[in-house]
Amino acid sequence: MRTGVRLAIDLGTRRIGVARSDAAGILALPVETVYREGGQEMFRITELVAEYNAKEIIIGLPRLLSGKEGKNATDVRSWGAELEQLLPTCNIRLVDERLTSVSAHQQLRSAGLGGREHKSVVDQQAAVLILEQALEIERRTGRAPGLPLGNGSESEGA
């Protein structure tokens, strides 16, 4: 298992959930919800990378249940490419995030939070789930999870 903090991002059309790991890559912790505001969110993400000294960013890649990529995946790849321009030395990887938002909603409801109460943290919880999945893939395979940002043809570690 590689050491170093990883940030995970659940990119939505209006909000971005952010989570981080500890340096050992064992724990996944919610960080904050960042609002998408004309590209300004990029600067907040770069601040978080610096604040936590993150070595890698894991972005959830929304795939259709069939496994194919749709419009949202195109948005994630485009947004990730812009972020990569701001953080050229930070490794950015894409990890399949199918159903993480659904799971995050279910977990928060199970914890007793209603729809309005969990709206502000559901994106963070989805980012935690993406990060937990990525860390588990790395523990199981010994390889970095998912795909490098620019690669759309390689199959993900599962």
Automatic annotation (TrEMBL):
Chain coiled-coil ranges: none
Domain YqgF/RNase H-like: 4-104
Highest taxon, organism lineage: Bacteria
Cell compartments where the protein resides: Cytoplasm
EC number: 3.1.-.-
Keyword list, A-Z: Cytoplasm, Hydrolase, Nuclease, Ribosome biogenesis
Presence of keyword Transcription: no
InterPro entries found in the cross-reference section: RNaseH-like_sf, YqgF, YqgF/RNaseH-like_dom, YqgF/RNaseH-like_dom_sf
Matching Pfam families: RuvX
Main localization of the protein described in the UniProt heading: cytoplasm
Top-level class of the enzyme under EC nomenclature: hydrolase
Annotated family: Belongs to the YqgF HJR family.
Reported function: Could be a nuclease involved in processing of the 5'-end of pre-16S rRNA.
Name of the protein in its database record: Putative pre-16S rRNA nuclease
